[in-house]
Design goal:
This protein has 358 residues and is an alpha+beta fold. It is built from ten helices and 16 strands. The strands form five sheets. The chain has a five-stranded mixed sheet with strand order 2-13-10-3-9. Strand 4 and strand 5 form a beta hairpin. The longest helix is centred in the first third of the chain and has 23 residues. The chain is globular and about 80 Å long. The structure holds 2-(butylsulfanyl)adenosine. 2-(butylsulfanyl)adenosine binds next to strand 3, strand 8 and strand 13. The site of 2-(butylsulfanyl)adenosine (IVH) has 15 residues, from strand 3, strand 8 and strand 13.
Amino acid sequence: MSAHRAGQRIRQLREELREHNYRYHVLNDPSVPDAEYDRLMRELEGLEAGHPQFADPNSPTQRVGAEPAESFDTVRHQVPMLSLGNAFDPQEVQDFHQRLLKRLECESLLYMAEPKLDGVAIALHYHDGKLVLAATRGDGNSGEDVTLNARTIQSIPLTLRGSGFPSRLEVRGEIYMPLAGFDAYNRAARETGEKTLVNPRNAASGSLRQLDPQLTAKRPLAFYCYAAATREGLPNNQYDVLMALKGWGFPVNPEMRKVKDADGCLDYYDQLGAKREALAYEIDGAVYKVNDFELQDALGFVSKAPRWALAHKFPAQEQMTRLLAIEVQVGRTGAITPVARLEPVFVGGVTVTNATLH
Ligand code: IVH
């Protein structure tokens, strides 16, 4: 094949693979079977190997490159990565809503209601549509440069699709480990005698902070975006920003909803709670955000959290299991403690096998 033809085919394959990736990870509507995707990827790898002049670090073949790092660089966040105020019962949600109505001197508010994903926060920087930096939250003011690891996560776009995105874009979201991937990883680890992952949240955080990107690449991580850190060139409300990000190739959680007032938030919370067990990933509550950015700006911040958002947590998870035996332990001082041996049960992010019976 001539170099010219090879270059054309390489461009075409990259475009096609990106589009398949988008259909799979963002639209959840794969357009080709995995085998076809793999075939296109192999064809691209072959052509790139034969025509190194067309090498491109953002080619879909280049997700896992790079030698292991010695340490991560520190990155200062231009816009701090904040935390969220918490609510644990409906009254606190009502109080939050009433506070905002009073401050804004209005009678009703639209919120975006979103699942609170239990993973690790990430900031993704794009220059002219190319991923240039991925940073962890760290202490909120500065985090670690984990770009090489983030690049291995298939649902993080390396190159944005379409047009109209701002030339400088910082997208924030959560990296998480889907439950199916977590279980499959641990099943395989048990068979080969490797260390198992403790829970999906720790697994996501530990996987993202591997010095060797090859190791991160083997962990089944995924990503959902939930915000843009910058405002330039973007719509003026949360819902429209999420829709724009989706169009540019970022996965947006399908459970996000626009709701009205505290009652809308509380209905959402109940519906989400009912779905929780059936979701493919762990969540620990709902997040409510004032939709309109002008109103967000008017509300501003208290210490390290925005006044315009609230995390409404789910209660600690409960699970049923079988009591296998009760053993009696005698402590050094002679104190006797009965201990229940349980059929292992995954609850609240950990596997429980024993419980002291006071
Ligand atoms: S918004 C200024 N939305 O929860 C608002 N955060 O306590 C910043 N999180 O570390 C966050 N799901 O990583 C937002 N839908 C969501 C979220 C979410 C999970 C995490 C986030 C942050 C923590 C905030």
